[in-house]
Specification:
The chain is an alpha+beta fold. The protein is built from 2 helices and 12 strands, in the order H-E-E-E-E-E-E-H-E-E-E-E-E-E.
Length: 215
C-alpha cells in the first residue's frame, strides 16, 4: 500500500508541471483575446440556486459589454430588470417596482463587472485577485477554477468556474459558488464580439414616476 501511495504521489508530481504549463498557455490565449475585445453582446440564462431551500430561479436576457467598464445586463423574463454599470456607477432598475438603486462600484456587492471575470483583463490582474487551476479540457473548451484571494473584490465568492470557448477564448459559462453553498450559473449564447452597439445602450430610459434611491 505504501509503494502504491508513493507511486501515485510521484505521478502527481510529474503531472503538475504539465498542467501548470498548459494553464499558462490558456491564460495567454485569454489575455490575447481580451486585448482585442472592444464590445460583446450575448443572450444569457442565469440560474440562481438556493442550497437551503433546494430551489432555483431562472432568468433570461441580454448582455452588452463595452470595454473597459460599461455593462448592461438586461433581464427580460420572468421579471424585467436592468443592471447598468457606467463610469463606476452601478444602477439597478427594477421595472415592476418603478425604482432605481444607485451605488458606487467600489462600495461592494455584485456589480456587473464582478460577474464578467474572464471577459478582457490582463493576466496580472487575474493573478492579483485569483488562484487559477485547470479542471478539464476538451476539443472545444477548457474549464478553469478560480479561487478569489482574501482581498479580492470577488472574495464574496468561494470559487468561480469558467467554461471558456477555445475559438473565441471567452467564457460561455460562468458558475459562482458562494460560501453558504448557494451558487449562480450563467450560460452565454449567440455571442457577438466587436460588433456595433447602439449609442444609447448604456443609458436608462426612465418614466417620470420612477424613484431613484442613492446608497
Amino acid at each position: 500500500m505504501m509503494m502504491l501511495t508513493i507511486s501515485l504521489l510521484a505521478l502527481s508530481l510529474v503531472a503538475s508541471p504539465v498542467d501548470a504549463a498548459r494553464l499558462d498557455e490558456i491564460l495567454a490565449e485569454m489575455e490575447k483575446a481580451g486585448e482585442q475585445l472592444r464590445t460583446l453582446t450575448a443572450d444569457f440564462e442565469q440560474t440562481d440556486h438556493d442550497a437551503i431551500l433546494q430551489d432555483q430561479d431562472v432568468s433570461r436576457g441580454k448582455l452588452h459589454l463595452e470595454m473597459p467598464g460599461s455593462v448592461r445586463w438586461e433581464h427580460v423574463e420572468p421579471a424585467p430588470k436592468v443592471l447598468l454599470v457606467r463610469d463606476k456607477l452601478v444602477r439597478v432598475y427594477n421595472v415592476s417596482a418603478a425604482q432605481v438603486d444607485e451605488f458606487k462600484q467600489d462600495s461592494g456587492g455584485r456589480s456587473g463587472m464582478n460577474l464578467l471575470v474572464g471577459f478582457g483583463g490582463s493576466n496580472d490582474e487575474l493573478a492579483k485577485n485569483y488562484d487559477a487551476s485547470l479542471l478539464e479540457e476538451s476539443e472545444s473548451s477548457v474549464v478553469l477554477k478560480l479561487i478569489p484571494k482574501p482581498d479580492s473584490p470577488a472574495s464574496l465568492f468561494a470559487a468561480i468556474e469558467l467554461t471558456v470557448d477555445k475559438t473565441t477564448w471567452t467564457p460561455v459559462r460562468s458558475v459562482f459558488h458562494e460560501v453558504n453553498r448557494d451558487h449562480t450559473d450563467i450560460d452565454f449564447e449567440n455571442v457577438v464580439i466587436n460588433g456595433e452597439l447602439p449609442d444609447d445602450i448604456f443609458e436608462l430610459d426612465l418614466p417620470k414616476d420612477v424613484a431613484i434611491i442613492k446608497h
